[in-house]
């Protein structure tokens, strides 16, 4: 009877599926309700939920989902059960999007352990296997993080893939929306990504096969498809083209009373001109179906952004645009050199073509139109043939003579007041180039062709054939002697990308990085030393400061002599001191740009938990100090209030130690981190430091084992390597006695008795495990692991800690091969354990401790100099090798300026690396426009002179979505100019000093 009912239910479900496909949702609900009378199945409830959702009956949809979940245990097949669960949960999330929180107050069941492993493994394997797929998808990292947490049982079901946070809002209804045109052939082209998003921070790239695997289970709101494209002509370097090429489009003849404002469109840089043309033809045909124009006949023109299209009549039969360039149909857009600011004219043919880029030529003798010959003498009149010229000579000879004598017309040179078009995220390059272009001694060197004598075409450290020097010379000539208001530096960009692969493509880069490569590359291309000798670095020991500096400079000059060295290289003194033997090493090194860190004068309240040896409860102290203070300053303050000498400060993020803080770390960088100062034993080098993770089990889920979560910050314990594991376990039980005793039915006197009582309990109060810290193997999205050192399982979720008098800690440590980081233990309390909140008790000290500091309302360039030339202790990752101690040590390092160059380039270090992205310091640094005097900061005896500012590279916004401009002092304009890509305008000196100033260019007064 049961099988008969099940078969009837299945038949009705098949019928209901057809109803859903035909969008007969009401009928599907009737059929499904009848089916569920025969047999309640998860599949039946899933279809019912889908039908209710499509009828906007969201509460009924959620009710069906819950009933479907309750029937899941009836499915014996694990894989099928998990598949239906995913679909039910996805449907639930979609319904919850339409309801208030009060209507959706239900818990999401965690996935089974098998499903967690299978889903992640399959996604990982698909991502790795299909890493060469042509099609990829941009996926929100926020969603992927939630999905991963869900699989680990620490987050609710992620719902459908949500990518909207990555996109600009351009909601197309028809073929256009505002200033945007809709691609009618490729839907993914209509998804405009935000400029500010960064890979690995905001999104992850996923190959299509792996993406479809995710989408099948979860659904998605927007599928952001992008393609793998070659970056080089050889095709040996491929990249996913995440951000498409923006183009600005205007149709001629116009479909409106005036020529239209350019519309935005985007297309692959690797598309051909004819591909773009076909797309635009289809759009305008859809937009204007009643037009009499033949949309099948069109051609594309490129015009400069300063071309005033509004000057032309929208229905003119003939339009002359001399700057227009006809784009050949078979040319790839990237090779057509269309800059982001250029305008693309799509010209539809009327009786004849409308646009011409050459004026009509008329024979002055016979008035014939066609290809003409110029008068060879005056160039002012044209003839169709030599016969017409002979016949007209008697009328023209007097005029010809006067024209030759009086008409000498040459277009006015721009004298550097020329913009550079943005070729696609190249504002960083334009900014740096404008600043270097206004380095007048260097520009005069190139304009006078003096550089030719210095060309070093065979320098292996330069660009082949000195290509960079020639490309730069060509660009400088165009900027200063050309007549165009703006240029497209395509050739320079091509040369840079050819020899510096990091600049291939059209990603945003750092103007400081480009500047460094450009000046170093020019130096090597123009290096007057043809054969560099190998000379060992000299030693300063036993020499006076002056002798040592000159010796190092001579050593540098034997391999490096160029106009860049003559103008831009200075020398600084670097002092390193070993903290153990106090040996001092001094070198005098050359520098091309001087990088200055920016002090932070904000007042910070820094809270630190002070943890004494053996204590479970820390004491919390709060210190009031300057944000630019270092960790070493904080340590001094802690010693005064705590009275403990041996301690280290650990930084925690989400209860996990992120490492001990180096003494030179600035306090202002420690936001959002919990700081704990751990007391160390006096002879701590003879102990093994073992971090202890403290966790607790949650309640058991639908099909899964109990989830585990960390309940307190990691503790640090110290054990002798010779100590046995039974003794270690006793020490840990004793350390946690406050919690343990509160969960026993009787009082105990020592750790041995406590351990015995714990063994006698019905359900274990806790388990002690070895944390699996085996190294991760590199994956495309997430990483796998090497086998666990203790059980050999790649999927090990921590191994039980042995409890034996015969096993020593050293035995366990000797097994470590695949692990990274320290050997760690984990105590996991059962879900029944009470009083675990005691682990988070803190004894709070009453009032903040004040540390004396200087209060400042502003930051000056001199403050940055003092801050950057202070002594600092090298961090753990940057140790120095002491030749006397024969080991790497955290030396004290000091930078001091020894000499200054003629052209001083100061790089304000506004960016600090944080994981996949960098944080920016937007503080205003005040710097002088004239009369910069650094004499008190220079060690050398020579008077360094004073400096005047002539250029600034600016950066606005964040690094990923920011924008670069330049301020330059132009001699022809006799004023400051703002250079923003192709736009050049006069500006006041008062605007030059701003929080956007990033690289400062100073010239020493003659």
UniProtKB/TrEMBL annotation:
Alphabetic keyword roster: Hydrolase, Metal-binding, Protease, Thiol protease, Ubl conjugation pathway, Zinc, Zinc-finger
Protein's GO biological process: protein deubiquitination; proteolysis
Protein origin, superkingdom: Eukaryota
Domain DUSP span(s) in chain numbering: 111-229
Positions with biased composition (Polar residues): 94-107
EC number: 3.4.19.12
Domain MYND-type: 363-400
Domain USP: 418-1005
Primary enzyme class: hydrolase
Record GO terms (molecular function): cysteine-type deubiquitinase activity; zinc ion binding
Compositionally biased spans, kind Basic and acidic residues: 112-121
InterPro entries the record matches: DUSP-like_sf, Papain-like_cys_pep_sf, Pept_C19_DUSP, Peptidase_C19_UCH, TPR-like_helical_dom_sf, Ub_carboxyl-term_hydrolase, USP, USP_CS
Stretches for region Disordered: 94-121
UniProt entry tagged with the keyword Amino-acid biosynthesis: no
UniProt catalytic activity: Thiol-dependent hydrolysis of ester, thioester, amide, peptide and isopeptide bonds formed by the C-terminal Gly of ubiquitin (a 76-residue protein attached to proteins as an intracellular targeting signal)
Protein family (similarity comment): Belongs to the peptidase C19 family.
Protein name as annotated: ubiquitinyl hydrolase 1
């Amino acid at each position: 009877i049961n099988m008969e009912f099940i078969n009837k239910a299945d038949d009705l479900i098949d019928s209901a599926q057809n109803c859903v496909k035909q969008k007969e949702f009401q009928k599907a609900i009737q059929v499904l309700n009848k089916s569920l009378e025969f047999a309640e199945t998860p599949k039946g409830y899933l279809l019912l939920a889908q039908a209710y959702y499509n009828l906007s009956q969201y509460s009924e949809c959620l009710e069906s989902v819950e009933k479907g979940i309750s029937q899941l245990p009836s499915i014996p097949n694990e894989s099928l059960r998990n598949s239906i669960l995913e679909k039910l949960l996805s449907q639930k999330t979609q319904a919850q999007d339409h309801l208030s929180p009060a209507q959706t107050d239900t818990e999401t069941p965690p996935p089974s352990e098998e499903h967690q492993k299978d889903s992640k493994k399959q996604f990982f394997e698909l991502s790795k296997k299909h890493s060469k797929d042509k099609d990829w998808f941009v996926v929100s990292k926020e969603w992927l993080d939630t999905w991963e947490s869900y699989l680990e049982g620490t987050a609710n079901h992620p719902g459908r893939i949500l990518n909207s946070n990555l996109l600009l809002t351009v909601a197309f209804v028809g073929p256009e929306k505002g200033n945007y045109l809709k691609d009618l052939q490729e839907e993914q082209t209509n998804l405009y990504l935000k400029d500010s998003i960064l890979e690995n921070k905001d999104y992850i790239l996923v190959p299509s096969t792996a993406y479809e695997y995710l989408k099948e289970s979860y659904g998605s709101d927007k599928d952001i498809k992008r393609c793998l494209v070659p970056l080089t002509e050889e095709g040996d370097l491929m990249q996913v083209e995440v951000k498409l090429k923006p183009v600005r489009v205007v149709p001629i003849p116009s479909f409106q009373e005036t020529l239209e404002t350019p519309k935005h469109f985007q297309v692959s840089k690797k598309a051909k001109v004819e591909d773009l043309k076909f797309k635009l033809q289809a759009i305008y045909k859809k937009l204007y179906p009643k037009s009499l124009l033949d949309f099948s006949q069109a051609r594309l023109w490129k015009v400069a952004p300063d071309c005033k299209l509004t000057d032309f009549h929208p229905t003119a039969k003939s339009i002359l645009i001399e700057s227009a360039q006809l784009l050949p149909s078979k040319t790839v857009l990237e090779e057509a050199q269309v800059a982001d600011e250029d305008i693309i004219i799509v010209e539809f043919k009327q009786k004849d073509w409308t646009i011409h880029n050459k004026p009509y030529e008329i024979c002055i003798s016979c008035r014939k139109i066609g290809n003409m010959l110029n008068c060879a003498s005056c160039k002012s009149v044209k003839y169709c043939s030599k016969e017409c010229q002979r016949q007209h000579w008697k009328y023209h000879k007097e005029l010809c003579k006067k024209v030759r004598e009086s008409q000498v017309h040459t277009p006015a040179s721009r004298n550097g007041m020329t913009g550079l078009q943005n070729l696609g995220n190249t504002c960083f390059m334009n900014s740096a180039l404008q600043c270097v272009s206004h380095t007048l001694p260097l520009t005069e060197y190139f304009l006078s062709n003096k550089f030719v004598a210095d060309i070093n075409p065979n320098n292996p450290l330069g660009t082949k054939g000195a290509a960079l020097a020639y490309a730069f010379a060509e660009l400088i000539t165009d900027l200063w002697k050309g007549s165009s208001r703006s240029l497209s530096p395509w050739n320079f960009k091509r040369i840079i990308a050819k020899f510096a692969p990091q600049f291939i493509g059209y990603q945003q880069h750092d103007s400081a990085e480009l500047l460094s490569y450009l000046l170093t590359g020019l130096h090597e291309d123009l290096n007057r030393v043809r054969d560099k000798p190998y000379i060992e670095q000299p030693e300063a020991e036993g020499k006076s400061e002056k002798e040592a500096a000159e010796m190092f400079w001579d050593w540098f000059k034997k391999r490096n002599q160029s106009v860049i060295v003559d103008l831009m290289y200075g020398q600084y003194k670097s002092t390193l001191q070993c903290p153990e033997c106090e040996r001092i090493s001094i070198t005098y090194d050359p520098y091309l740009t001087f990088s200055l860190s920016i002090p932070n004068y904000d007042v910070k309240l820094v809270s630190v938990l002070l943890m004494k040896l053996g204590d479970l409860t820390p004491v919390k102290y709060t210190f009031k100090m300057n944000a630019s203070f270092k960790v070493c300053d904080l340590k001094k303050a802690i010693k005064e209030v705590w009275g403990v000498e041996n301690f280290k400060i650990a930084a925690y993020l989400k209860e996990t130690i992120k490492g001990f803080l180096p003494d030179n770390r600035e306090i202002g960088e420690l936001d959002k981190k919990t700081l704990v100062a751990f007391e160390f034993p006096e002879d701590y080098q003879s102990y093994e430091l073992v971090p202890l993770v403290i966790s607790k089990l949650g309640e058991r889920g639908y099909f899964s084992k109990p989830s585990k979560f960390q309940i307190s910050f990691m503790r640090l314990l110290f054990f002798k390597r010779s100590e046995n594991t039974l003794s270690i376990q006793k020490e840990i039980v004793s350390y946690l006695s406050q919690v343990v005793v509160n969960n026993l039915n009787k009082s105990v006197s020592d750790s041995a008795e406590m351990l015995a009582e714990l063994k006698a309990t019905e359900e274990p109060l806790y388990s002690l495990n070895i944390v699996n810290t085996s190294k991760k193997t590199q994956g495309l999205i997430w990483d796998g692991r090497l086998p666990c050192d203790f059980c050999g399982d790649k999927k090990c979720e921590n191994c039980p800690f042995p409890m034996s008098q015969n096993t020593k800690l050293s035995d366990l440590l000797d097994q470590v091969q695949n692990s990274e980081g320290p050997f760690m233990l984990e105590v996991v309390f059962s879900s029944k354990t009470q009083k675990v909140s005691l682990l988070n008790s803190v004894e709070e000290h009453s009032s903040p401790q004040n540390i004396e500091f200087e209060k400042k309302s502003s930051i000056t360039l001199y403050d940055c100099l003092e801050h950057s030339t202070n002594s600092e202790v090298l961090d753990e990752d940057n140790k120095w090798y002491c030749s006397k101690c024969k080991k790497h040590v955290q030396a004290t390092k000091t930078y001091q300026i020894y000499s200054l160059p003629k052209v001083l380039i100061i790089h304000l270090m506004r960016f600090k690396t944080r994981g996949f992205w960098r944080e920016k310091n937007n503080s205003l640094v005040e710097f002088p426009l004239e009369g910069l005097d650094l004499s008190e900061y220079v060690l050398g005896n020579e008077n360094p002179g004073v400096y005047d500012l002539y250029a600034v590279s600016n950066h606005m916004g964040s690094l990923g979505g920011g924008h670069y401009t330049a301020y330059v002092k132009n001699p022809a304009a006799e004023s400051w100019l703002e250079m923003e890509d192709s736009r050049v305008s006069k500006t006041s000196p008062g605007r030059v000093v701003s929080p956007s100033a990033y690289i400062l260019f100073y010239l020493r007064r003659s």
